[in-house]
Amino acid sequence: MVSEYLYIPLITWLIAQMIKFGIAVLQGKYRPSLLFSSGGMPSVHSATVASLATVALIEGGPTSPLFGITGVFAAIVMYDSLGVRRAAGEQAKVLNLLIEDLSTNGAVKTPKKYGHLKEILGHRPLEVAIGLMLGVAVSALLLGNTLLVRASWLMTTPSALARWIQLGLAVFLILSGVIVYLWARARSSRKLARYRPFLKQILISNLVVAALFFGLVFLQTQGVRTYNAWLFVALGLLVFFFWHAALWYMLLVDGKLRSSIADVSVQARKQKWMKPKRKKARAARRAAKRK
Q: Structural domain boundaries of the chain?
């Protein structure tokens, strides 16, 4: 029988690579080589070593020497992704631009001789964080039975205090999302206007997760055994963290949830022009011209 210390990290690696390839395809960067390349979203290295450390934690517990070894190993790999490998990728990007500029100016006559350096080597902090969460989640799902045996509290019923905490968290998510979004809409700052699409998605995610917590509390008060456990509260929190991490990635890396300054300027001019006072002034000018 194949050890779980081997097949679970391999499955995690495969899932992370497929997710990274899918994101690249959606961005219009279809290249089969992306299935085996490093860099990108999520961090495959981080997901794999996090999966290995999680397997050691579930199988041996936090006092296991193997968990200590795999945990330190995972921390070193993730630190290397953020530091040395990312710096090497940034340097490669600068060198490629430098050779391109020099060849355009005629200073370099044979730019093909230098080749094109690989630019995507390391990872941004968000990519490493998503890889870490993915590795932990995959290992926890594949070793679900063992996890429930070792962490039996996950199948216990939350107390009345825990239900109030869930309700408080749901109310906080709703109020924070609504207040921040309305505040951003009320402000006329261009910088804030750029982030309105992102804040709108944050509001939607907060409302959905809050509804999830309200539903869980209702099921807990009704005594529905299937959902009356800490496990589903943990799954709700996991959905929240993954959703928000994806939104932050779309904001900071893709830029899809961030409007351009040009778009914001056009919208601001339109709103200013279409104000009621402007309408009345334009109508008065048209009436004066007719006379």
A: 1-83+122-150, 154-265
Helix axes 65-82, 84-105, angle to 10 degrees: 20
Q: Which residue has the tokens 């290992």?
A: 139
Structure confidence by residue, pLDDT tens digits, 23-63: 878 777 766 766 777 777 788 888 999 999 999 998 888 88
Output DSSP code: residue 157. Answer: P
Query: The tokens 């001789």 sit on which residue?
Result: 113
pTM above 0.70, yes or no: no
| Inter-axis angle of helices 160-186 and 196-222, nearest 10 | 160
What are the angstrom distances between the C-alpha of 242 and each of 83, 233, 277, 284? 24, 14, 46, 55
Instruction: Return the amino acid letter for 90.
Output: E
Looking at every residue in the chain, the average pLDDT score rounds to 77
The position carrying tokens 């919208």 is 267
Query: Is the previous residue joined to 9 through a cis bond, with omega within 30 degrees of 0?
Result: no
Beta-carbon contacts of 90 under 8 Å, excluding residues fewer than 6 positions away, are none
